[in-house]
From TrEMBL:
Protein name: Aquaporin family protein
PANTHER family attached to this UniProt entry: AQUAPORIN OR AQUAGLYCEROPORIN RELATED (PTHR43829), AQUAPORIN-9 (PTHR43829:SF9)
GO molecular function: glycerol channel activity
Similarity comment text for this entry: Belongs to the MIP/aquaporin (TC 1.A.8) family.
Cellular location(s): Membrane
Membrane listed as a keyword: yes
Membrane topology: Multi-pass membrane protein
Membrane-spanning ranges: 12-32, 39-60, 66-86, 93-115, 141-163, 170-190, 230-251
Length: 252
C-alpha cells in the first residue's frame, strides 16, 4: 500500500475510533435503561475528550487530523506537508477528508450495533438523534454558526500551536494528551449553545448513518440544521489557519 493509502486508512480508523467512543458516551447518557443514563453534559464532555485521545493514538500514520476543519486549517496556515510527510495538494486534502467522513460513518454504525436494544426501547426520537449528531439548545442558525466558528477556531489554532512546539519539545511532545484536554475545555466552556460539533465529519457522518440505519422510531435527521456544524467548523478552521500565520510565527 502506498503512502497515500496508508494515510487514508489511518484517518478512517482514527475517526471511526473517535466517533465510536464519542457518540458511544452520548448513547450511554441519553438512551433510557443504560447504566450511564442521565450522566449529564460533563460526562459527555470528558468522554469526547478521551475519545479524541484514543482516535489520535491510533491514527499516528496520518498525523491524526480526524477532522476536515483541522485539515483545511493546516492548508490555510501555509503548511507544505501534513504531519505524515504527505505533501499538501488537492489530492491529499481529498484523501484526508474522505477518510475522515468514511470513518465517522463507520464509527456511528458500530455505536448503533452496540446499543441496538436500547435504541429499540428508547421512546424519544430526539434522544436517538442526539447520539449521532449535535443540535442547538436555542435554535438560531446565525448565532449557532458563530458559536461553531469560535469553538473550531480555538481547536485548530491551538492544534497548530502544538504542532509548532514539536521540535522544541513543548506540549506537542506529549502527543494526544493536550489535544484531548483541549477538546474537554472547549466543551466545558463553549459547548453549551450547540453541543460543540467543531468537526464537520463528526456531525455529518453520524447524521448520514442515522438517516440510513433502520433505527426503530428514529424520526427526522434534522437536515435543516445540518449545514451549521459543517459550515461553522470549516470557517473556524480556515480562519485559525490564517490567524496562525500572523499570531504564531515560526522561529528560525
Amino acid at each position: 500500500m502506498d503512502n497515500i493509502g496508508v494515510v487514508f486508512l489511518s484517518e478512517v480508523v482514527g475517526t471511526a475510533m473517535l466517533v465510536l467512543l464519542g457518540c458511544g458516551v452520548v448513547a450511554n447518557v441519553a438512551l433510557a435503561k443504560n447504566k450511564g443514563f442521565g450522566g449529564g453534559f460533563l460526562m459527555v464532555t470528558v468522554g469526547w475528550g478521551l475519545a479524541v485521545f484514543c482516535g489520535v493514538i491510533v491514527a499516528y500514520n496520518s498525523g491524526a487530523h480526524l477532522n476536515p476543519a483541522v485539515t483545511l486549517g493546516l492548508v490555510a496556515s501555509g503548511a507544505t506537508e501534513f504531519g505524515s510527510g504527505v505533501p499538501v495538494n488537492f489530492l491529499s486534502v481529498l484523501v484526508y477528508i474522505a477518510g475522515e467522513m468514511l470513518g465517522a460513518i463507520l464509527g456511528a454504525v458500530v455505536v448503533w450495533l452496540a446499543y441496538k436494544r436500547h435504541f429499540d426501547e428508547e421512546p424519544s426520537p430526539g434522544s436517538k438523534l442526539a447520539v449521532f449528531s449535535t443540535g442547538p439548545a436555542i435554535r438560531s442558525y446565525a448565532w449557532n454558526l458563530v458559536t461553531e466558528i469560535i469553538g473550531t477556531f480555538v481547536l485548530v489554532f491551538v492544534v497548530i500551536a502544538f504542532g509548532r512546539q514539536g521540535e522544541a519539545g513543548g506540549l506537542a511532545a506529549l502527543g494526544a494528551l493536550p489535544v484531548a484536554l483541549l477538546v474537554v475545555v472547549i466543551g466545558t466552556s463553549l459547548g453549551g449553545p450547540t453541543g460543540y460539533a467543531i468537526n464537520p465529519a463528526r456531525d455529518l457522518g453520524p447524521r448520514i448513518a442515522h438517516f440510513l440505519l433502520p433505527i426503530k422510531g428514529k424520526g427526522s435527521s434534522d437536515w435543516a440544521y445540518s449545514w451549521v456544524p459543517v459550515a461553522g467548523p470549516v470557517i473556524g478552521g480556515v480562519l485559525a489557519g490564517w490567524a496562525s500565520i500572523v499570531l504564531l510565527p515560526i522561529l528560525t
